[in-house]
Amino acid sequence: MNTFIILLRAVNVSGTNIIKMEILRKLLLVQGFQNVQTYI
For residue 7, which phi and psi values (nearest 5 degrees)? Predict the structure, then answer.
């Protein structure tokens, strides 16, 4: 099994470019990723 790490720059900083982690997690699951975890 491959492990992927996604690093997002300038997301959720000072109220601009806000992405809710639950939405991001669901988008990645739809794309076929498994055991998706987010951390801030």
Answer: -110, 120
